[in-house]
Amino acid sequence: MSDPIESIELSEKDEADLAQLLADGAEPEFHPVLEVWREVLANGPELAKEKVSPQWASKIVGTYQGVNFADMEEVQARYFAKIGELANVLDLEIATDKDCLTYRKPEEDAEENAVHYKNLLRDWQMTFLQWELDWKTTDPQAAVELAAISEVHKMFFGQTGLTAYLDNIKFEFNEQDQQDLAEALLELRDGQALKDE
Asked: I need a surface site. Which of 6, 51, 143, 197 has the fewest CB within 10 A?
């Protein structure tokens, strides 16, 4: 399989529709970022079945110490399991609001869905933190787990990751939002520390 982030391909119908839109000079229809995320993440189960590509394997083995080519099927399985877990978080958030996918302008999406984006940024970050807190250096699969966590983090929070789509709607995550997120993460970390004592 190729790098999962780069492996989303347009079908012949998608390409024809895109060509028609461009030929007509029509503006593409706007879709809320929540909907875009859901569509991107929906490809996970199918991509998880693909063979690991030499390019992706080489990249992962070259990036993460302790990961070997023989580990790549496990890296892939964990990678897509984590994406599935984060997709479930998204689906649960979408299910809380029957109107969240109906907005057809970027400014409406940013304003009306702001609470959903803030909730998802918090819940996704908390999921990552929990994975990191659960990670143990003594686990024989520690390198594989760390590679999967790191690659999924790039997919969601990297410079060109899923959360970068929020820039397209000029979504604002202000200082108070950042403080609220930091407090939620600290509370999770402190709670874990108490459990571990």
From this structure: 197
Query: Is 41:91 a contact under the CB 8 Å cutoff?
Result: no
List, for residues 104-159, the tens digit of each pLDDT value: 999 999 999 999 999 999 999 999 999 999 999 999 999 999 999 999 999 999 99
Structural tokens at position 65: 């110490």
Task: Give me the DSSP letters along the chain.
Answer: ---GGG-----HHHHHHHHHHHHHTPPPPP--HHHHHHHHHHTHHHHTTSPPPHHHHHHHHHHSTT--GGGHHHHHHHHHHHHHHHHHHHHHHHTT-TTTT---SHHHHHHHTHHHHHHHHHHHHHHHHHHHHH--TTSTTHHHHHHHHHHHHHHHHSTTSGGGGGGGGT----HHHHHHHHHHHHHHHHHHHHHH-
On the CB side of 113, CA atoms within 13 Å amount to 30
* Environment class of 75 (CB within 10 Å of its CB; exposed 0-12, middle 13-18, buried 19+): buried
